[in-house]
Amino acid sequence: MLDLLTDFIAELRAVGIPVSMVEGLDAMRAVGVIDVGDRQALKATLGATLVKNSRHLPAFETAFEVFFALQRRIPEGGDHQSTGEGGLRTESGPGRASGGDADLTQSVLDALLAGDLAALMEAARRAVDELAGMEPGRPVGGTYYLFRTMRRLDMDQLRSELRSDLSAGIDPDSALEKRLVDEEVESRLGRLRAEIEAEIRRRLVADRGRESVARTLRQPLAEDLDLMHSNRDDLRQLEDVIEPLTRKLAARLARRRRRRREGRLDFRRTMRRSLAAGGVPMEPIFRTPRPHRPEVMLLCDVSGSMATFARFTLQFTYAMASQFSKLRSFVFIDTVDEVTRHFGPGVDFAEAMIHIATEAEVVWLDGHSDYGNSLERFLERYRSEVTPRTTLIVTGDARNNYRPARAELLGDLSARTRATYWLNPEPRSYWDTGDSVMSRYSPYCDGVFEVRTLRQLEHFVEQIALPGSGIRPSKRAQLGLSTGR
User: Fold this and answer.
1) Distance between CA 33 and CA 40 in Å, rounded?
2) Under a CB-based contact definition with an 8 Å cutoff, are residues 1 and 36 in contact?
């Protein structure tokens, strides 16, 4: 049991759920005082001791179902020729129902109508055994077997017959009763699907092992979703997570600033006060620090797929606006325009991005990315507003459509700033492939970061928001750049 719990905690950490050593020890102590044969009690105990955020519950439940899957015994006198190692079918022509599809469908329907959980579990076992066509060692995910089983069961027919039987005796003119029947039908079919999925998962675990199946079923947390390749459901998750994430980060930064309240030793005041103690410096006096909050300029590529990344970068950074002394935002495609006016407290970022798309002047020629021309226009319009207190953040994939990169313009701009950072949402292996010119710009940046997820964006904002962050003039001189100071 100890090894199983250790592997389970390791899987939670691999998914991204933070589990400390102390929390792991708490979970092991809690398991020692419950009946481990009660699966629901075990799940509740581990969830209470290991999960601290409701957003992590789906990932926890998936891992729990894999590591603590119920194992079924092969019935005595059963057809041992049809099952292989791990209880998977090995006969030729997988997916052929030995007892006939009609007989199996009727068994499933009877179990659904009776509401008998044991009968439903047995029907799910038969459905997987006869329809899924599972083969030992075959590198196929459980979703494939689930789809195959559900398709051959003919869910539409089951739904129709189940609704017909449950509707007997209700008032045909009552919309409420019809709705209740529909909800009951979907609830029972959902239970059937869950049992089939659980049966497939049990067999995969028996065949491949817990760790292998867990890696197959592993789903990233919302803060680890790829911003550039997120679907509609993923974007909704990101919207839900971004506000609590920024609140947590702001609170953490505030605590760190409070710990840094003591500055350097004030030798003169310390010695002056020591006169009262006969010249012994009993009470050191420190200078009051004046931490610098950076003035941030965001320069965001909003062309094509970059628009989604730019939106979440802007939304995250503006949610952290209290950590900066000034925050201005600019967007570009092949020319640049300032859009700071579209953002403020309580702004709806979806509407703000619509206003930017319709009002911002970001297209100069053909609407394809042109970093060189955008940098030139930025310098023409805002050169005098870039100061040694400015932290410049450029976001984009540096794909320039084979146009002149004009990287020296970024060098001129970087020499005027306190620090210049570049956030690229593409994997590093994609940089400098095709029309990417990332290596042309990176020498003029104080930091170039691969930022594909909210978690990576959080780490970056935390770095630049803390007092004392930024590049030093001595290092800028090593880059061969004028400090402009």
Assistant:
1) 14
2) yes
For the record, the structure tokens of 139 come out as: 């590198």
Number of helices (H) and strands (E), helices first, in the chain? 19, 6
Q: Which pTM does this prediction carry?
A: 0.67
Strand 419-424, strand 390-395: pairing = parallel
C-alpha 320/C-alpha 465 separation (Å) is 9
b/e burial code for range 99-134 (CB count within 10 A of at least 16 → b): eeeeebbebbbebbeeeeeebbbbbbbbbbbbbbbb
Q: Report the run of H or E that residue 393 belongs to, with start and end.
A: strand 390-395
Residue with tokens 């009051």: 288
Using CA atoms in the order 214, 219, 223, 226, what is the torsion angle rounded to 10 degrees?
A: 120
The secondary element (H helix, E strand) that includes residue 69 is none
Q: What is the pLDDT of residues 295-309, one digit of tens each?
A: 889 999 998 878 888
Residue 442 is which amino acid? Answer: S
Report which secondary-structure segment, H or E, holds 423: strand 419-424
Nearest to 434 by CA among 405, 390, 400, 464: 400
Element (H, E) at 27: helix 21-31
Whether the Cβ atoms of residue 394 and residue 422 lie closer than 8 Å to each other:
yes
Q: In terms of pLDDT, which residue wins out, 100 or 426?
A: 426
- Distance CA(205)–CA(219), nearest Å, equals 17
pLDDT at position 144 over 50 = yes
CA-CA-CA-CA dihedral for 453, 456, 458, 463, to nearest 10: -160
Give the residue ranges of DSSP H helices in 360-472. Answer: 371-382, 407-416, 438-441, 454-465
> In b/e form, how buried is each residue of 212-233, taking b as 16+ CB within 10 angstroms?
ebbebbeeebbbebebbebeee
Q: For residues 334-344, give the mean pLDDT.
A: 88
* DSSP summary character for residue 132: I
Closest by Cα among 252, 225, 220 to 236: 225
